[in-house]
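Entry 14. Two folds queued back to back today. First construct below, sequence then structure tokens.
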Amino acid sequence: MKKQQIAIAIVSMAAAAIPLTILADNATSTATTTGFSNFQGLQMPQGPQIHQGLQMPEPQQAQYPDGPRLIKLEDSKFVYWVSPNNIKIPMWGDAVFKSYGNDPSDVQTVAQEEFNYYPDARFVRLIDSARIYKLDGWYRHFIPSAIWNDSGQDASEIIDINRTDFNSYKNGPDIKDGAEL
């Protein structure tokens, strides 16, 4: 016996059709003719029209360029590095800027609106270290791993920084509770 495929559509409450294929093994027929003149076919329920497919919206262009990049405001001396995840972190002075091998010609001056588009870095980690710190202005606060692990924070928000950058932040008190994050 041949396998027969029957395609049916299940209509959801939103009237979207979802195709479903059912394979019938060893299907038998009691029809005595080969013309199928008595075959009624699948009956579709009366009611809402079947949606002909889902329409995906066109992908939107990012409003501003993605990182990594270096930016600064016109009247500011501070340069910010924008990570590949579009999170900005300040470079507190020339020593930090130079420690990454940056070139001043790579810094782009941006308007306040574009600057505000990139969220501020909240978490950093010293390169080659597992210790995570919360940033608060010029201060870094150590986050014990038990608190970090229970916090539900997105690890993609952590920015790895070098020793010069790390030392540009003052030591603040350790985080004692996940609510402090």
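Second construct, same run, same settings:
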Amino acid sequence: MTKKIKAGVIGVGYLGRFHAEKYAALPDVELVGVADLDPDRAQEVAGPLHTRAFTDYLQLLLELGAIGFALAVLLGWCVVRQAVRALAMKPAGDNRYMGLASMGALTAISIHSFTDFNLYIPANAMLLAWIAGLIAGLEFLPRRQHNWKQVGVAKHIDVRPVRL
């Protein structure tokens, strides 16, 4: 017997309801629960699917276990990597300053949320998503192209093997 993959749906509005139904119908997937700010809507979707209803998405992520935690960490790592890249490189325009400001804001909301455990408050979660979106949208200039004629090197060098 194969082990089932745990899944959860955060936000069971119009489209989230369909996602939850599809996950519940898959034979190799265990729908752990659905999360929504409206407890009646969460229960309305969870009841027929024989799963749990959550009003706190962090509780659902905890129920998903290591995989859910790993996905959250991976997303966070990608966002932080993009911000550090903006700080280390010379990006286009004012993106370096935007990266610095976004990294500071990301650090502040992370410390605030982890010490007070209030990331489940929609305003804080939305702020975190907004900061992550700013960081993800930073654009960079392409790497500097060398002008080989100025350096005195031919652009195309013939590297055929030599027979002795």
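Quick look at the second one. The chain has two domains: 5-64, 71-136. The chain has a mean pLDDT of 76.
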